[in-house]
Amino acid sequence: VTMRVRVDRQGYVRYYAIERSSGNAALDRAAIEMIRRANPVPPAPADYPAENLIEFLIPILFEAP
Question: Which pTM value belongs to this model?
């Protein structure tokens, strides 16, 4: 799964969406839930470029035990 995530400078997730599906609905839901639970994330460093929202593409890999 690849997630598109936008975070504000304080570290709050303001937007998330599946950019590329795993092809498995349960794994896609797990990736979404992981982003929801991670909110908020650490704030942006003071020297990071001054944008209101910072966008990331986050690849998430699931492996069988």
Answer: 0.86
How would you write the pLDDT of the chain (65 residues) with one tens digit per residue? 999 999 999 999 999 999 999 999 999 999 999 999 999 999 988 888 877 899 999 999 999 88
CA distances from 9 to 4, 19, 55, 58 (A): 16, 22, 11, 18
Tokens at 27, concatenated: 């794994």
- What are the CA-CA distances from residue 11 to residues 45, 53, 58, 63 (Å)? 10, 9, 16, 28
